[in-house]
Each structure stands twice: as structure tokens, then as C-alpha cells.
Amino acid sequence: MTKTYAALLRGINVSGRRKVPMAELRTLLEGLGHTDVRTYLQSGNAVFTTDSGAGEDELRAALEDAIEERFGFRVDCLVRDGDYLAAVADACPFPAAELEGKQLHAIYYSEAADPERFASIDRETFLPEDFALGDRVLYLYTPEGLGNSKLGEAVSRPSVVKGLVATGRNWNTVVKLVEMTQGN
């Protein structure tokens, strides 16, 4: 059965470092046997279909290995199917339709994040910024944008995310990836 996935690469093409050109990423994914490969922006978003029967973890590992072989450095990746991405968007506890894309973010995690990780964060201190946990995702509301967010720094501290691969996308990208994986 053919299934559509998004690959979310962490920390590439930032300040001229760890360059992974999107055309080469598409070629690499095609070389892994995937079809209908498309990329979005330069920040490491790729959508592809596969009928391999492999799960998200197998697809992720194969992509990470291929990137390391091709570019000479390892890149943490998350691979999520289109249904998961749509469910994340649908479950957003914040009024996404009323906000600008830069005000709302989804930070995807490699596995479920225990709420205890965030217990030390005094949420009242950061208001009106706020966050909520979902299924392997943290929704982050930053009315002034992520670049000005103190809460964004707090939820990203190494002590909070230790042992997790985490990669964030603004809400415009979340919506676009849902559209791309749902065939829109």
C-alpha cells in the first residue's frame, strides 16, 4: 500500500552550515526508492510516497544514513505520515485560524514527551505565551514570534528535551505539509 510521509530535517541550511540543497535531498529520497518527492522551503521539509511497508523509524534511519553518506555529516530527521500531520493540525488547542503563522509553532518530537519534563517551567511567568503537549508534539504560542520568545527558549533547554529529537515548524509550514501529504 502506498503511503505519503513528510521528512523533517533538523538544523540544516542555517547560517550557511550543514548545507543540504533541496534538489539533492529530492534525488537522495528518490534513490531510496521513494516517489512523488517534493520539498518545501530550504529548511528541510520533504514529502514523498512509498510502498515499501517500512515504518516511520525505518524510513528515518535510512534517510539519516543516506544523508551522512552523501554529505559527510549526520542530520537528525523525523518522518511522519500524512494522517499524523493532519491529526496534529486538527488537535491544535490554540485558535490557529485567527493567528499569524509566526505566532504558532509545532515542535515535533521523536517520541512522546512526558509532561514532567516541563514541570519546572513556570508558565505564568511567560504569559501571554503558552504551550500545550500533544501526540509527540508541543504546540507553542508566541504572539511576538519565536525570535522574541522567552518561553520558546525555556521549552527548548537541553534539560527539558534531553534524549529527544526535536524540530519545530511555524504554523504556515505545518499547514503546507498537511496539504502536501494529503494530496492538496
TrEMBL record:
Listed InterPro entries: DUF1697
SUPFAM superfamilies associated with the record: SP0830-like
Chain ranges passing through the membrane: none
PANTHER family listed in its UniProt record: BLL4334 PROTEIN, DUF1697 DOMAIN-CONTAINING PROTEIN
Protein name: DUF1697 domain-containing protein
